[in-house]
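As agreed, record minuted below.
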Amino acid sequence: MFNELGDVQVPRAYFPGISSDDIDDLQLHIFVDGSETAYACVAYLRASINGEYHSALVSAKAKVAPLKALSIPRLELQAVLIGCMLMKTLCSSHSLQIKRRIFWTDSTTVLSWIHSDHRRYRQFVACRIGEILAKSNPEE
């Protein structure tokens, strides 16, 4: 098993052999999810190059759920928050011109929290929604 480890190759470029001038449209897609055991996010770049779409894994972040039990919607909210932090870090550290940022979540509860007045919720939710809105737009 370890003998084959030398055969593994990971390209350093997101889109090998393609110049950044050849990219017509570049989008950053961030997927988030939470469960009873952990919450995480993963970021992909989606590029339109000469009419074809290519994607590349950029980064991921995961955290173990706290010992004190939190509800699934609150864990999903935590996942969205680390997704926003990851997005902000990626956008500020890359020289590529990202035209659109898109977040993906399966939590309708978190989506409704984001699209409503966050000040009407308890402190835990209100603070995190405030941070999310400071780093992103509800349309994303």
Notes: The first helix runs from residue 72 to 93. Residues 24 and 48 are 5 Å apart (CA to CA). The chain is about 30% helix and 30% strand. The chain has a mean pLDDT of 88.
